[in-house]
Amino acid sequence: MTSYLLKNYQLSGCELFQSLFVSEYGLRHLAQTKKDESRKWGHRLIAAIELCPVIGLVATLIEAIVAKCIRSVLSKENPLPKEWVFQGTQSDCEGAVVIAKVESIRAKLEASHPLGISFNPQKIKPYLMGGTCSAMSMEFLNSYFKERQVCVQQSDQRSEMLVNRIRQMGQQFASSSYKMRTLQAAYNTIEVIQPDSAVDHTKNKVQSLANYYSFAIDYASPEIHIDKLRDENDLSQTVQALPEGAFFVRIIEYENNKKLEKSGHSLVYIKENGLGVFYEPNQGALKLPELRHTSYLYEAFKSCWGRFQVSRARFYRFHPALLHNSLHI
Predict the structure, then answer these.
(1) What is the pTM of this model?
(2) Which residue spans within 108-230 are E strands per DSSP?
(3) Is the same domain home to 92 and 69?
């Protein structure tokens, strides 16, 4: 039975209202038939019931209640390993967006873009395809800085308190969402204007996204070629040389196009005041054991190379010059 549970049961206000007429859970089960061949008929049956008028609404409510009860029991039987602060996923990252809201974010990004970067309004699409890793990683850092500031204001900078506050962020990052899709759709309009070897375009692209939150990059690591790493020792020198701080980690596969990349993936790495945290949008947030940071980063990088074929990684330390409440979406 649990095999047919959706990975994401969160609904936006718009999706909740829509479900009074057309079940969002039914649509998600229908989409799942294309992703899970072995269980497609089960998902089709559930979708057929939930997409029926009136009956579907009742079935949707029953599924929501049953799923909540089952997951509550499973979480008690299988608590998270000690290292995991919370688990999450990019599940349901693809979906419709409102063009006007995407344009509002795109216009703000365009207004503050750094040298050589632009955001093309012609690239806005009404439906997002692909992941939302950059949006989720940026939002994670934005939330982290706010929680860290609360700890500072309370004169309590113990890592246990901050970890507990990060744990509370877990609900927001349990899965992707309409908000993440809208942000990512605006990010995806990014282009490089007249590539110039004298300009650090990879850094400028990240800075152009960070501008939305009024973050500044005050350190950028040398580029790491993941495909050439033989073992974690090849990575250790770069990791040990990183200053303390919170890092947006961008991994790309270069291509000579308007974006100067074929594909990419984004992560978060934090090391400050004795605390080590690693956030991967496909997995969640992990509290890194002391002296094991390089091991975990090496495995994560190799996983990215194997799954997404992205080979060039850099660490960008963000400085929250002005904590910013991001646009309500």
Answers:
(1) 0.77
(2) 117-119, 127-128, 190-192, 216-220, 224-225
(3) no
